[in-house]
Fold this protein.
Amino acid sequence: MVNPHPQKPTRRRGSSAEEARLLIEQADADGVKRAAMTLRMTLRDVSELKRDPKVPMADISYSPDGMRYLGVAVDQGGVTQSTLDRGDTSYVRGAAQAAAAAPKPKATRKKTVKKDVAEGAEKPPAKAKAKKVAATVD
């Protein structure tokens, strides 16, 4: 009998740093350049990677372009499972953050046209505002 439910991904056995290192080493062995790779990590895995006492400080670097692990760019969040993009897909690094940071156009209301003005009739005279009388103290 065929199982109608898709198979769950296998459980990770090591830390996020160990898993990422393994994926990067496999891609290196396949001839993929590290500049083309992107680690797409969950926020939890990125936090674990930053706090892992086994990871040497030299393995993680920060620049204006973002975080790098072992020379591979790291994209944080936006995925449900951490993966390594080898550069052979249509994924564009940083596109999600750029779209989120782009200013959204402000919604404006349409101005209503009054019937009197549309028909050419003149406006009725404005009501005179009552003036406030200053209270005097005796």
Notes: Residues 127 and 134 are 22 Å apart (CA to CA). The first strand starts at residue 38 and ends at 41.
